[in-house]
Specification:
This protein is α+β, with helices and mostly antiparallel strands. Among the domains are: 34 residues; 80 residues, SH3 type barrels, CATH 2.30.30.830. 23% of the residues lie in helices and 25% in strands. The longest helix has 18 residues. The model has no long low-confidence stretch (mean pLDDT 84).
């Protein structure tokens, strides 16, 4: 090891220890100033008023976890088995939830079908017709009117089955 390096290594600890010999008078003065300040008081906790007692009287009503009777009757009366066609390719508007889609208008070529203009969740406008699919719940357009698009969605019924649910998009201003 070179003598210069040895001297630098021996002087460095001495310089570091020299910083420790500083006076603590400024720290003591600051602590005394803090001790001289008046002490605060702790406020008592707020007083809580007791809540009135409540008697639950809805035990004779239908459980919120059971499907409503009208839905059960709908399933029993329809007779046909409903399920989505999972093998067909998805259309562009099936990427968006129905709540994200907006019906912006309708257009028709002379002698042709009525098309609906649907604004997607990304701000683009898509042209759809009866039979097109949209929404995340296998929704299929069944009617296009100048101010309304009627859709039938196929949603789970909660018992490993499917049920059709009518929805609509109305013309938004």
């Amino acid at each position: 090891m070179s003598p210069l390096r040895l001297m630098a290594l021996s002087v460095l600890p001495l310089l570091m220890l020299g910083g420790c010999s500083a006076s603590f008078e400024d720290v003591r003065a600051q602590m005394d100033a803090i001790r001289q300040k008046p002490r605060g008081t702790v406020e008592p906790p707020p007083e809580f008023t007791p809540m009135p007692t409540f008697t639950y009287a809805a035990h004779q009503l239908r459980s919120p976890f059971a499907p409503p009777i009208s839905a059960e009757q709908l399933l029993m009366s329809s007779g046909k088995k409903v399920e989505p066609d999972l093998s067909r390719p998805q259309e562009y508007l099936e990427r968006f939830s129905l709540e994200a889609l907006r019906f912006r208008g309708a257009m028709q070529r002379p002698g042709g079908p009525l098309f609906a203009l649907i604004e997607d969740g990304d701000g683009g406008v898509q042209r759809v017709k009866v039979g097109s699919y949209l929404g995340k719940n296998h929704g299929q357009i069944v009617e296009v009117a100048p101010n309304l698009v009627s859709i039938i969605e196929i949603v789970p019924d909660g018992r490993d089955g499917w049920v059709e649910r009518p929805r609509s998009l109305s013309l938004s201003e």
